[in-house]
Amino acid sequence: QVQLVESGGGLVQAGGSLRLSCAASGRTFSSYAMGWFRQAPGKEREFVVVMSRNGYNTYYADSVKGRFTISRDNAKNTVYLQMNSLKPEDTAVYYCAADRTTGQGMRIMTSSYEYWGQGTQVTVSS
């Protein structure tokens, strides 16, 4: 069982930055690929980025590539999402999720992820 708790959301002007954190409970954090997803009002939850178990591999959605950076600290059981050059269309509830994938695989489907945080709101004003 893994519990995930996000933090760091808030209100920021367009062009600004935010850093989200996701703290995981348990001693098997390094067994999970970690992903970030987001859900805007009236829209489906969408993939943002995933990082492999060892932290060496990442995959970003085109919409955030070059602006967002994922990182993880397995010693602290925490994954981060640095968001720069934020746009109003980035406004959403952001969720971290854990996927007990094999090896260093990375998946982007929400159905692949076993555990989810409660979400943190990010609002970007124009």
Characterization of the model:
The chain is 0% helix and 47% strand. By secondary structure, it is mainly β. Strands 2, 4, 5, 6, 9, 10 and 11 form a seven-stranded mixed beta sheet that branches. A four-stranded antiparallel beta sheet has the order 1-3-8-7, with no helix packed on it. The chain starts with a strand and ends with a strand. The model has no long low-confidence stretch (mean pLDDT 96).
Keyphrases for this structure?
7-stranded mixed sheet; mainly beta; 4-stranded antiparallel sheet; 11 strands; 126 residues; 0% helix; globular
Summarize model confidence as the mean pLDDT. Answer: 96
Describe the main β-sheet briefly.
Answer: 7 strands, mixed
Structural class: mainly beta
Distance between the termini: 40 Å
The number of E-state strands comes to 11
Query: Runs with pLDDT <50, length 5+?
Result: none
Compressed to H and E, one letter per element, the order equals EEEEEEEEEEE
Radius of gyration over C-alpha positions, nearest whole angstrom = 13 Å
Our count of helices gives 0
